[in-house]
User: What shape does this take?
Amino acid sequence: MVQLHEIGRIHTPYIDTAPYQPVTDDLGVFKLILQEQYTSALQDVEKFRYIYVIYFLDRITPKKYYDQVSPPWAEGKQVGLFASRSPNRPNPIGLSIVEVKQIRGNVIYTSGLDVYDNTPLLDIKPYIQELDVKPDANYGWLQSDNEEDRDHLLLHIQGKPH
Amino acid sequence: MVQLHEIGRIHTPYIDTAPYQPVTDDLGVFKLILQEQYTSALQDVEKFRYIYVIYFLDRITPKKYYDQVSPPWAEGKQVGLFASRSPNRPNPIGLSIVEVKQIRGNVIYTSGLDVYDNTPLLDIKPYIQELDVKPDANYGWLQSDNEEDRDHLLLHIQGKPH
Assistant: This one.
């Protein structure tokens, strides 16, 4: 058993309902509020344009998962859970890349991310050009000659209703 | 308290000592061995060139951290812990991007990653071109007009002795 603890909370406009559409910044305020003892550990974070946000998906219900995800819109296509970003995973760890807008004390204002308000925050790491940008990354099973199909699939893999 | 559990183990050539140099594939075999019940959840993972590997840094000793990291080689520069990739963090969660070389049953053969052999695996997520590649990402506090300095700093932020 691995025991972790929250270091703060993520605050979003999504109080009771999941996001209805791709997350854009004009939907409201998105911020990470860290526990106060971590304030000085945030020094220099604002020098990064992007950060990784790692969190615990505590609102996943039911707390179970399936080995295979079978999106009905994909004509019966089944993909393995680990080839998906489904939040229903053995360990419901969420990972998002957000833009750092401003840091004030223990609060990081960010670009949008599609998690429920009050989601427990586990870690923050700098997203660094040379380490994290893989220009030759592909689209995996989302690959399609039809750009519209692919964009549609991307919404699904992000769990974004549309 | 957040409770997670391992879904497998990461196997690397680093049995007793940390990597001595930047990780390259010719240093040995790197593989993720998942528990057998997760084998079918790996379907389609091999269609992705890159995946995120999320793991628990169980060999961190001492199990403590400092708010600020002060690399002696950086002329007294201190940076906040969350602006670093130091493994000594409130939650010792590791995050690496690796290339998928081959999948055989419950084993994923990957490009190199600098963790100790037998590190507990927590999650695998597809690294997807459109979602995860941020071409405008910067270098944060590692920014330097001197390319050699920056490369040197990059080795440090990755925790790679050199």
The radius of gyration of chain B is 17 Å. Chain B touches chain A through 64 residues (CB under 8 Å).
